[in-house]
Amino acid sequence: MIKRIGILTSGGDAPGMNAAIRAAVLTAAANNIDVIGFHHGFNGLLDNEYQTLLPQHVQHIIQYGGTILKSARCKALYTSEGAAKAAKALEALQLDAVIIIGGDGSFRGALSIAEHYNGQIIGVPGTIDNDVDGTDYTIGFATAIDTALDAIDKIRDTADAFERIFLIELMGRHSGYITLSAGIAAGAEQIICPEFAAIKPDNLKDLIIPIQHAQLLRGKSSYIIVVAENSYPAGTTALAEALSEALGIECRACILGHIQRGGRPVGADRILATKLGAYAVEQLIAGAHLMMAGEVNQQLSLYPLAKTGDKTKQIDPYLVRWQQYIASD
Ligand SMILES: Nc1ncnc2c1ncn2[C@@H]1O[C@H](COP(=O)(O)OP(=O)(O)O)[C@@H](O)[C@H]1O
Ligand SMILES: O=P(O)(O)OC[C@H]1O[C@](O)(COP(=O)(O)O)[C@@H](O)[C@@H]1O
């Protein structure tokens, strides 16, 4: 029987993590389970930084981005000694189970702890990148799209006024979910992300031909290219410079960066986080171990933690086809 659980947030913070913490704490309290919240991701386990989490500690946090537990990356966990030390901290606090809110990296960390820990472990997918298998959406993705859109719409205004070409870099480490979704919703003229062909200095013409074609058809006007981070070897600013040189027109680069991680979670993220946080606790009570609480086709479901990083989930193939079709026209 589960009496005490731990919870932590790890990796890139995502709007809605607070909502997930809240739901887990409230669900645990309703089942007479004590909750310990670790600070700064896995570092809290290694440094003994934690607090008791009671329902009053999670009051009125659902609307805030970031995470009340703080998040971090933790190098020590990549070693077997680090994982053993983390497991020891869980055992010392007599925790029957632990909830890890994070991305597939954090789940790999959870698996390494599991090699030394006798309790149960469950994951809750929280990352703006949406690059976790076993759930249609991760907590934070919907908010990140809206934040990116707000910024892109503003850049469109100034791009329109100057009839300029803008390259806007969006986050996503090695996946194009944010870039494709925000690019489509913003009506970007071109989208560059890892799932499309790579852009290299020697194939800039793939970018340039559609720009020249658009200029021939509609004259000079604003032109927005959204670019996933890490898409061009020397970076998006260098890509804008290379385009300026090749086209003979000034192109501007704008790196949206961490603004995409912040802000009030949108309704969809608050609801998803509430469902997954509550479901994670319920599934721990039911005996789940080394699983992730996800949602697929509006059905809550468990998915093996070990498979969450397999990258079998794909960015919307319909939108990919449509984007390639209109961009090549
Ligand atoms: N292969 C791994 N082995 C052990 N721990 C890992 C591993 N990958 C990631 N982690 C842990 O999870 C943390 C967060 O992972 P990261 O990939 O940065 O973010 P996310 O969880 O959002 O994908 C890392 O800093 C590390 O502590
Ligand atoms: O905040 P940092 O350490 O610079 O990390 C940036 C990375 O974190 C993210 O915002 C979120 O990634 P994770 O959720 O996988 O940690 C990525 O989009 C980005 O590449």
Automatic annotation (TrEMBL):
Entry keyword Nucleotide-binding: yes
Catalytic activity: beta-D-fructose 6-phosphate + ATP = beta-D-fructose 1,6-bisphosphate + ADP + H(+)
Enzyme Commission (EC) number: 2.7.1.11
Subcellular location: Cytoplasm
Pathways per UniProt: Carbohydrate degradation; glycolysis; D-glyceraldehyde 3-phosphate and glycerone phosphate from D-glucose: step 3/4
Domain Phosphofructokinase: 4-283
SUPFAM superfamilies noted in UniProt: Phosphofructokinase (SSF53784)
Name of the molecule in the record: 6-phosphofructokinase
Name of the gene this protein is made from: pfkA
EC category: transferase
Protein family: Belongs to the phosphofructokinase type A (PFKA) family.
PROSITE patterns, alphabetized: PHOSPHOFRUCTOKINASE
Swiss-Prot/TrEMBL keywords: Allosteric enzyme, ATP-binding, Cytoplasm, Glycolysis, Kinase, Magnesium, Metal-binding, Nucleotide-binding, Transferase
Cofactor(s) needed for function: Mg(2+)
The UniProt record lists the keyword Transferase: yes
Species of provenance: Rheinheimera aquimaris
Highest taxon of the lineage: Bacteria
